[in-house]
Amino acid sequence: MDPEGLARLDRRIGGCRACPRLVDWREEVARTKRAAFADWTYWGRPVPGFGPPDARLVIIGLAPAAHGGNRTGRMFTGDRSGDVLYQALYDVGLASQPTSAHADDGLELYGVRVTAPVHCAPPANKPTPAERDACRPWLVQELRLLRPTVRAAVVLGAFGWQAALPAFAEAGWTVPRPRPVFGHGVHVELDAADGPPLGLHGCFHVSQRNTFTGKLTPEMLRDVLRTAATAAGLPPTKYG
What we know:
By secondary structure, this protein is an alpha/beta fold. It has 8 helices and 6 strands; from the N terminus they run H-H-E-H-H-E-H-E-H-E-E-E-H-H. The protein has helices spanning 3-14, 20-32, 69-72, 80-91, 129-146, 157-171, 208-213, 218-231; strands at 57-60, 112-115, 152-156, 173-174, 187-192, 195-203.
């Protein structure tokens, strides 16, 4: 475990300007704002991961929302997707509170770190393959720093799954061939030559489209989190 290394990585991520389209978009959103947040000073930068450096479970999403993480500076914070995710984490005993409104709201995660394969808010929530690939080294470094403790991962959505598999491989785990296909509830064990395996779990993304239509229900999300937490050695203590 290298807490200082992860803190340094977070600071470096916050200063990245590698993708011109994403830089332009995140900064334009921060200038123009949404009327409901007119009094906010938007973060407007890449959003680093959130959670303790000795996390046993990592949750990998897609990218920050324009008026969520791009506004608050914390993953899945200040938007409806985050409302769903953090409520579920609280329900199964992995978060100190069920809401995530801003970066100084006192929220703590217990043994869990939340991150993404793309750290900047993309237009229409759709990063390009080139932007995904340009951002991958950040995820690889984060996973390498977490390797001493992390034992399970939950990947939210097919985009995150496709982006995360090569990152897991570069970070030292063995990804089966052919690559496992994403699906809700899919579970794959990723072996490592020099350490314990990682339990990889697929989950539909906590997007409004999925949660509003019922494709992903709170019960479905809690079930995946319970399974992954147990695999990681973090038995849930609450069942909402």
